């Protein structure tokens, strides 16, 4: 397969670092220095290649998931054990869903879904910086992505507020300037402000509810781009109250997280009998069975079974994010295994990641693992990128690794 041959050759295509550096400096010297000092492995040294058939399977799996999640029976099942806040059902869809896949000889395997996936704005900068570089295949992105993203946020606003003007956005995260992807917040802010929308990057502690709405630094906020990993807002009660009272549009929101990203959902999506009982068509069940590794809820009473079978599984906290608390079964210690068995975990059958050979100056060629992310809004795939890394999980600490543009080849 052409994609495999290209990925196995570190000289098949490389990133023009001078062009990328120029694009980074174009955002301002402070931006460039921040990336250099705080996230030097943000962008990989090479692009990543995906075959047409792999891309088609990813699109089919995403369409199948979207179809199931929008069934009334799914809503009932997903919300059954959920906290009360997720029963609040906004009209907004939720921006930047991330469908993360491992690609290998057996095909494309959806390993998780995120509802506040980071990196999209950064990848636009990467792709735009490489326009003059000869890279095989077609870049896996819609045309004019910045306008696509801007329209997505405007659509979220329209779904909640109709034709009222969108005047102010707050990009909200805990201590935003200390977040690894803080440069992305700057890129989003610049895009919104070029469109005439006042944009603040803020800690949720800066939000102040008033009688006529939610304020930040004396500015009334219309829409909050939510980058928090407190998915049900249990530690952010001011924001929770403002969300429930409709003082500002929140995207993505707790309801979307519960329907899509709670990892218990992966167990339901790989349970053929339960899917058929919901009325899911056999052909859709077949797509999900082939495209999502079998996932099961871990129960304490099954500890002996899980210990015996652990090498075939990857253990993930059901409500986790960013690979925190996730363990490859083959490497798990007795102590960690005992913690897993206390509950709150799912087990997913191992699906090997793909590989990309990378040549870094002064080092031997290295095979980096790959994780492929599809950014999706309202069922539409906007952009596909890869993250290249070494180790158990994506980490942005690997020389030559980081975000890589994806190119689709025959």
Task: Indicate the topology.
Layout: H1 2-7, H2 17-25, H3 29-38, E1 48-51, H4 52-69, H5 72-78, E2 97-104, E3 107-114, H6 120-129, E4 138-139, H7 145-161, E5 168-172, H8 182-194, E6 198-202, E7 207-210, E8 213-216, E9 219-221, E10 223-226, H9 237-244, E11 249-251, H10 254-261, H11 264-269, H12 272-278, H13 282-291, E12 295-297, H14 303-309, E13 313-317, E14 327-328, H15 334-340, E15 345-349, E16 354-358, E17 366-377, E18 380-389, E19 402-409
Parallel strand pairs: 1-19, 5-6, 5-10, 10-11
Antiparallel strand pairs: 2-3, 2-17, 4-19, 7-8, 8-9, 12-15, 13-14, 13-15, 16-17, 17-18, 18-19
Helix pairs in contact: 2-6, 4-13
Structure description:
The termini are close together. It is globular, with a radius of gyration of 21 Å. The protein has two domains: 320 residues, no CATH class; 57 residues, 2-Layer Sandwich (Dna Ligase, domain 1). The protein contains 15 helices and 19 strands. With 410 residues, it is of the alpha+beta class. The strands form four sheets. Strands 1, 2, 3, 4, 16, 17, 18 and 19 form an eight-stranded mixed β-sheet that branches. The chain has a four-stranded parallel β-sheet with strand order 6-5-10-11, with helices on one face.
Largest sheet: 8 strands, mixed
The chain-level structural class is: alpha+beta
Report helical residue fraction: 25-40%
Mean pLDDT: 94
From the N-terminal CA to the C-terminal CA, the straight-line distance is 8 Å
The global form is globular
Number of domains: 2
What is the number of E strands?
19
Beta-strand content estimate: 15-25%
Our count of helices gives 15
* Radius of gyration, in angstroms, nearest whole number: 21 Å
Low-confidence stretches: none
């Amino acid at each position: 397969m052409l994609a495999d041959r290209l990925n196995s050759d570190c000289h098949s295509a490389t990133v023009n670092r001078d062009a990328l550096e120029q694009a980074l400096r174009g955002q301002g010297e402070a931006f460039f220095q921040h990336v250099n000092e705080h996230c030097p492995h943000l962008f990989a040294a090479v692009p990543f290649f995906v075959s047409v058939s792999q891309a088609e399977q990813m699109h089919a799996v995403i369409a199948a998931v979207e179809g199931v999640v929008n069934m009334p029976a799914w809503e009932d099942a997903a919300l059954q054990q959920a906290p009360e806040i997720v029963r609040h059902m906004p009209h907004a869809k939720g921006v930047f869903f991330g469908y993360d896949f491992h690609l290998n000889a057996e095909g494309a395997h959806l390993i998780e879904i995120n509802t506040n996936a980071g990196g999209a704005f950064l990848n636009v900068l990467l792709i735009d910086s490489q326009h003059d570089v000869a890279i095989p295949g077609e870049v896996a992105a819609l045309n004019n992505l910045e306008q696509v993203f801007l329209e997505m946020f405007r659509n979220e606003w329209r779904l909640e507020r109709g034709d009222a003007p969108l005047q102010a956005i707050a990009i909200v995260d805990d201590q935003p300037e200390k977040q690894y992807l803080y440069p992305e917040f700057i890129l989003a802010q610049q895009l919104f402000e070029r469109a005439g929308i006042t944009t603040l990057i803020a800690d949720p502690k800066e939000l102040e509810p008033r009688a006529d709405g939610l304020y930040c630094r004396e500015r009334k906020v219309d829409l909050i781009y939510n980058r928090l990993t407190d998915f049900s807002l249990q530690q952010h009660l001011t924001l929770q109250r403002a969300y429930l009272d409709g003082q500002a549009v929140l995207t993505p929101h707790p309801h979307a997280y519960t329907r899509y990203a709670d990892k218990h959902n992966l167990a339901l999506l790989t349970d053929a009998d339960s899917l058929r009982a919901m009325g899911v068509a056999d052909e859709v069940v077949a797509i999900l069975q082939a495209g999502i590794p079998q996932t099961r809820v871990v129960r304490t009473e099954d500890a002996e079974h899980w210990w015996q079978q652990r090498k075939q599984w990857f253990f993930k906290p059901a409500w986790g994010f960013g690979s925190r608390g996730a363990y490859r079964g083959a490497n798990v210690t007795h102590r960690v295994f005992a913690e897993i068995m206390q509950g709150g975990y799912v087990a997913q059958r191992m699906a090997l990641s793909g590989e990309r050979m990378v040549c870094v100056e002064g080092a031997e060629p290295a095979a980096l693992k790959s994780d492929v992310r599809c950014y999706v809004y309202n069922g539409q795939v906007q952009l596909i990128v890869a993250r290249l890394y070494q180790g158990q999980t994506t980490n942005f600490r690997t020389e030559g690794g980081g975000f890589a543009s994806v190119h689709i080849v025959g």
